[in-house]
Amino acid sequence: MPDKVRFHFDVDGSDFSSAGAASVQVKKKLRQLAYPPEIIRKVSIAMYEGEINMVIHANGGVVDVEASDEEIVIVLSDRGPGIPDVDLAMQAGYSTAKDNIRNLGFGAGMGFPNMKKYTDYMRIDTEVGKGTTVTMKVKL
Amino acid sequence: MTLNDLCQPLSAKVLCGDTDKSFSGVYVGDLLSRAMSRVSADNIWVTIMANSNTVAVATLTEPAAIILAENVDMPKESLDAATKNDITVISSPLSAYEISVVIANMTPENK
Ligand SMILES: Nc1ncnc2c1ncn2[C@@H]1O[C@H](COP(=O)(O)OP(=O)(O)OP(=O)(O)O)[C@@H](O)[C@H]1O
Ligand SMILES: [Mg+2]
User: Fold this and answer.
1) Share of residues in chain B with pLDDT > 90 (%)
2) What is the C-alpha separation between A76 and A61, in angstroms, rounded?
């Protein structure tokens, strides 16, 4: 495991079919760097959910990942519509996804609950009309 | 028991990937963020959702195979992505329930 490695991704908000690609790349890199499988699983789930949210709710954004021998930090930032009520959005089953998005398999309202469950730290900074930044940490 | 042993009882068509893999456990469901946290490595994931997002979830969770129920077909670009990521995709005319019953009967440890 390295001292510190950083990855940066631009996530395209117009292409649902490639959504998840950044998470897949991070997973492959962490595996090359020999992180434990259970850590990779947590990071994969948390980052995937955040990445998908940026695509389906916020028209894309950027992801920064920093991996060290102590923790993996994932920061997802978008300039989407923001989240008016974070406590409500965090509730299992709550979703504003439209039918066309639900038809693809999204909209269970489990993204944020998964992110919370599989990380050791999660923080949502959001402002309506400005955007959302989600910071998550998985400790080794 | 490998995926090969399931193909005939499920009247399955292999859409892509290796069927020489063993498996353990089954998850049935179509909602991606539920599957994301419930599909474990080497499971069989039974679903009727066959798009590139299904493939992305499988790439991250590494099931032994995706089994598409009710003869659902997977679009070519999604199959290409599955092939690239070593994901086995199988289609069966049976329903998700029927597929689960067949697998349970063949693998007592999965019951
Ligand atoms: N980046 C974001 N920008 C704006 N709104 C967001 C963002 N992420 C989440 N939300 C809001 O929070 C709600 C809950 O998100 P969550 O990920 O838990 O569920 P979902 O995305 O609707 O469904 P699922 O993740 O199960 O497919 C969303 O429906 C949306 O209203
Ligand atoms: Mg979500």
Assistant:
1) 95
2) 7
